[in-house]
């Protein structure tokens, strides 16, 4: 059966350019691809699919197209260039051309998104709780102003790569498999510069420091991230820039310890206040507060002040402030103070266990422990 004219197969004119050929081929390939025609028992769709593929392989190749235009199918048959093998390489081309894979034609012109960057931002507890505007200095690769990102010295020539003919990709045959990879001569750009830009040395990007403003919302905590869209590395081939992620780290506070939305602090009190009770002043993020201490309070007593903690950045109720009392033992006593404490201790001892119930109970338990130990050691 005589082959149909390749231009007729693709429904294009004889002067159709590469873009028109590819557009027509993509339309036919999508229509007749075997995966889209599962019920094609007669194989008509598969035949048309292979026919379109063969026509595109020839007409998209400048050398093969010239032979075909002059000698027709006969000229290609003599060179063995008018048949599609249907092997692994063809399927790679199919998926590249139809679905935009990394190894297809024109890959060097495909836009790629730039890389994301990270920046660690240290904040005080107050800055994290109330929010703040911060300025940060970020070093990153940015498009070279001298060459507008081309890598070529202004006024110099940019030539099509002779190795890959501008495709940016080369195909290597390994046994039954055909593998496409970035062209080693142009690193996938499809073009080579004759003279490199003096500022970026041909890279197209230079390292720059920028000052950016970061608006830190109230309630952030260590581990939270703030995204600055488009402030990352520049994209390739006019692709969008990446993002800058600002990683929050809250530095330790001299008074408060944060636990999610709650705050904790230790407050020392003297012996007299612990025994007699009283009123003390405590710190909070809202300012100074008064706390009433009951009589005979012990170390470790915890007080909860509702809604005096942190309001979470993602919403929800405001946390609480927990005050932990620490009874402080006096130090550096003078002679008179020591005598007063000795008199107090003697008075307390005369009262028996009623003044020190925990100590009395602990001593009784310890005596029982040693009595049991003597029994078992016999």
Write a structural description.
This protein folds into 4 domains: 96 residues, Helix Hairpins; 134 residues, Heat shock protein DnaJ, cysteine-rich domain (Chaperone, DNAj Protein, Chain A), CATH 2.10.230; 71 residues, HSP40/DNAj peptide-binding domain (Sandwich), CATH 2.60.260; 43 residues. The chain has 9 helices and 15 strands. The relative contact order is 0.09. Strands 10-11-15-14 form a 4-stranded mixed sheet. Strands 1-9-8 form a 3-stranded mixed sheet. The protein has 378 residues and is of the alpha+beta class.
Order of strands, main sheet, comes to 10-11-15-14
Shape: elongated
- The CATH H-level superfamily of the largest domain is Heat shock protein DnaJ, cysteine-rich domain
Helical fraction equals 25-40%
Named at the architecture level, the CATH assignment of the largest domain is Ribbon
Key terms:
378 residues; alpha+beta; Helix Hairpins; Chaperone, DNAj Protein, Chain A; HSP40/DNAj peptide-binding domain; 4 domains; four-stranded mixed sheet; three-stranded mixed sheet; 9 helices; 30% helix; elongated
Could you give a quick summary of the protein structure above?
By secondary structure, the protein is an alpha+beta fold.
Write the SSE topology.
Layout: H1 6-10, H2 18-32, H3 44-59, H4 62-79, H5 88-99, E1 117-123, H6 125-130, E2 132-143, E3 158-160, E4 169-174, E5 177-182, E6 191-193, E7 205-216, E8 225-228, E9 244-250, E10 257-259, E11 262-269, H7 271-276, E12 278-284, E13 287-293, E14 302-305, E15 321-327, H8 335-350, H9 357-377
């Amino acid at each position: 059966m005589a082959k149909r004219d390749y231009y007729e197969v693709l429904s294009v004119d004889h002067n159709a350019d590469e873009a028109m050929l590819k557009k027509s081929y993509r339309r036919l390939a999508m229509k007749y691809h075997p995966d889209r025609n599962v019920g094609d028992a007669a194989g008509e769709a598969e035949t048309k699919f292979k026919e379109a593929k063969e026509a595109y392989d020839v007409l998209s190749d400048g050398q093969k197209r010239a032979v075909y235009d002059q000698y027709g199918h006969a000229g290609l048959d003599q060179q063995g260039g008018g048949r599609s093998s249907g092997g692994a390489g063809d399927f790679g081309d199919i998926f590249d051309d139809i679905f935009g894979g990394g190894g297809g034609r024109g890959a060097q012109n495909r836009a790629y998104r730039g890389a994301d960057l990270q920046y660690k931002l240290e904040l005080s507890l107050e800055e994290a709780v109330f929010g703040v505007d911060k300025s940060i200095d970020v070093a990153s690769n940015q498009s070279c102003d001298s060459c507008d990102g081309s890598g070529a010295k202004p006024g110099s020539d940019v030539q099509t790569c002779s190795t890959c003919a501008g495709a940016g990709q080369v195909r290597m045959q390994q046994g039954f498999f055909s593998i496409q990879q970035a062209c080693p001569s142009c690193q996938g750009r499809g073009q080579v510069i004759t003279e490199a830009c003096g500022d970026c040395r041909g890279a197209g990007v230079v390292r720059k420091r920028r000052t950016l403003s970061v608006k830190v919302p109230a309630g952030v905590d260590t581990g939270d991230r703030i995204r600055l869209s488009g402030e990352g590395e520049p994209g390739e081939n006019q692709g969008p820039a990446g993002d800058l992620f600002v990683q929050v780290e809250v530095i330790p506070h001299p008074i408060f310890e944060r636990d999610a939305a709650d705050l904790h602090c230790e407050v020392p009190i003297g012996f007299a206040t612990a025994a007699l009770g009283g009123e003390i002043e405590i710190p909070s993020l809202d300012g100074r507060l008064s706390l009433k201490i009951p009589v005979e309070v012990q170390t470790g007593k915890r007080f909860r002040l509702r809604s005096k903690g942190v309001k979470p950045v993602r919403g929800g109720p405001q946390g609480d402030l927990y005050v932990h009392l620490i009874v402080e033992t006096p130090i550096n006593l003078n002679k008179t103070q020591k005598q007063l404490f000795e008199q107090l201790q003697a008075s307390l001892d005369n009262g028996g266990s009623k003044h020190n119930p925990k100590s009395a109970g602990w001593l009784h338990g310890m005596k029982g422990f040693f009595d049991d130990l003597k029994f078992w050691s016999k």
